[in-house]
Amino acid sequence: MERFEYADNSIGDREILVAVPSIVIGVGVLSMPRDIASATIAVDGIITIVAGGLLAILLTWFTAKLASQFPQQNFIDYASLITTRPFGIVLTLLLAVQGFMLAAFETRVIADVAKQYLFDQTPYGAVGLSFLLVVVYAISGSRTGLFRLNMMFFPIILIISILVMLLTTGLFEGGNLLPVLKTGVSGHWDALKQSIFSYIGFSFLLFYTSLVKKPKNVPKKACIGMSVAVFLYALIYVMCVAVFGNLAAGNLLYPTIELAKNVQIPGGFFERFESLFFVIWIMAIFNTTAMAFDAGVFALNSIFKKDRKMQLIFLLAPLIYIIAMLPNDIAEVSAFGVFVSYYGTTMTAIITILLLMIARWRGVTKQ
Amino acid sequence: MTVRRCFRILLYLSMIFVLSGCWDRVEIEDRGFVVGITIDLAENSGPDENKVAITNQFVVPSGLGGPSQGGSEKQAFANLTASGKSLFAIEREMATLVSRAPFLPHLQLIAVSSELAQKENLFSDVMDLFIRDHEMRREVDVVIVDGEAKPILDIRPENEQLPVMHIQSIMENSFKNAGVIQPLKIGELHEHLLNNRSYVIPRMIQNGNTLNYSGIGVFHGDSNQMVGTLNQEETRGYILITGEQNGGNVKVETDDEPITLEIMSINSSMKITDKTKANIGVTVNTEVEALIAETFGSGNMTTKGKMKELEGKAEAKMERLMNQTIHKVQEELNADILGVNRVLNQYHYDFWQEIEKDWDHGRNYFRDASIDVSANVNVQSSGAADQTKN
């Protein structure tokens, strides 16, 4: 079978700017206000969200900086250059695993959420399978196409988030935001862990920067993209706390969805706004899953000399599906989520900083 | 080659079967749209087993009729009662009694009988299903019905086809008349239940075919049971203290002529002035904007002196209303529904942490708090005319 190939197979730094928030905003934001609100008092959690966000922006900058020092080189190439080839392969594998686990986690959560709110009878396995099949279809095509899909979906996602918040301003109760600054250090620490985990996914910059022709501006653009995500998270958190109060926000399973359910459009002709929200949020989760899966495939493929993209996809998709369906209940799913976040954050941070330091120390620059 | 091609075409055609599949398909004719639910204590409930009876109001679409058909003879609703211990089990049992399975996302109203609400913790247990179930929206109204709740679903309204819609429009329209509060949403109730603070729920009294939406039921946050009610007068005081909503009216006597003021807006603010535990000082300032709605005398309304006098009288009257309410909730009901705890939590957090455990239960600091009220009335205009008779 021949496939149609696009003529232009490289992306610009503008695509990176959109791709960063696209991959970061996924299922995390649906439950994020609960995790943060239950650890903090009133609206104090916003401090931790912003602090976690700044940390994430810093890490994004490091990641992008490292990758952009080696324009049009794959991660495995410059990792081998900085360290050694076997070491480079190990690092690539470690990062690829993160992509697959993130894809599996996103698939599972979207299946659970869809079952809870949309399909009462359909088993989550069936929902997850059809979702994953669409993802597989998306990443079988050109990588550039995936970035263009991000460009197309992201404005829609932003608009619907802002619409949800605008339409719930009527329920905004300022009193719910008080008192300020009463959370202890341990509460902030717990919340900080949760908030950093909502920002995982930026490690894909290590791979995708090689697609950018002139990556000089990539670190800056990636940081701007990350700030969009931080800003959106902070806004959603404030709205959830102001509308529900800290206690209720901390006791709702998916506060962001409940926020969308609370939307009432005056006139009463459109009652169930959340259905629209769902459709569009599935697009956001689709972006995240597809990018995570593709980044993993991209990483693994770079180890082989021949192009084995299709074989890898068809080999890995069933594996991802099985991993996604392994957790038995919501508690196990969130334990899986915590593991994925821990793994992703620490792995990306350690690998990036290590490589940056060694590169500086040994004076390695591009070939 | 041709065999492979045929096989391929067959494969593609077989996909059509998958396209039509929908696991969750329910025809709209098979759904029983529930618009209202009442919850009572079951008649055969023993002294300590707390069985509840639930009545669902289903919409019968054929009874509604289109606008062109005019009013049809058929009744537009059907009420169905089932009882048991678990609400969820009752709802499922209901599905076996009726040809259409109950479908709850369009639920508008939950009415709870005052008898059930007075049982300790039963009310919060009953509400659990409605808060937990993902089918429910957080915008459902909750009211307390004096006595038995079930008969309110049997009211024959004059110009509405569904009793629940009738009840809802009563609630929506009567906020203009002070003495009622706006309906409580179940989402807000969730916050109250989590907060462990005392709260109020609007109350209805049925009188034959008419419903009065009047007064409020007071719930104690600690035991989650209804500890008493505020009548219309006391509710007016409550609204003036909390500034929860605008609207209402107040009657004032000046020089033996009664004047009715229509309240346009209420702004109240509460401050903590004294933080000694045994005698916490609270001041409430209420700013009221009002219009002259009706006079029974023949005086000139626009002179400055007259206006001042009127405002002074109105202030005195409002302060009396507020003090009456404060007295009742402090001495009799012992439940802080005025929001003093909210102010303490929001502005004096550390102090609140010390006294929270003994606020309106236990050591009872709330009862000993001295609450001072002051009202400030501003009459904006005398209406469209100055004098209507001479």
UniProtKB/TrEMBL annotation, chain A:
UniProt superkingdom: Bacteria
Membrane-topology annotation of the record: Multi-pass membrane protein
Keyword tRNA-binding part of the UniProt annotation: no
InterPro entries membership: Spore_GerAB
Subcellular location: Membrane
Pfam families named among the record's database cross-references: Spore_permease
Keyword terms: Germination, Membrane, Transmembrane, Transmembrane helix, Transport
Residue ranges of the TM segments: 39-64, 85-104, 124-140, 152-172, 192-211, 223-245, 276-300, 312-330, 336-359
GO cellular component, one term: membrane
Family: Belongs to the amino acid-polyamine-organocation (APC) superfamily. Spore germination protein (SGP) (TC 2.A.3.9) family.
PANTHER family the UniProt entry points to: SPORE GERMINATION PROTEIN A2 (PTHR34975)
Protein name: Spore germination protein
Organism of origin: Lentibacillus halodurans
UniProtKB/TrEMBL annotation, chain B:
Keyword Signal found: yes
Protein localization: Membrane
Domain Spore germination protein N-terminal: residue ranges: 24-204
Keywords: Germination, Lipoprotein, Membrane, Palmitate, Signal
Family to which this protein belongs: Belongs to the GerABKC lipoprotein family.
PANTHER family reported in the protein's UniProt record: SPORE GERMINATION PROTEIN B3 (PTHR35789)
Bilayer topology: Lipid-anchor
Annotated source species: Lentibacillus halodurans
Protein name, entry field: Spore germination protein
Source organism superkingdom: Bacteria
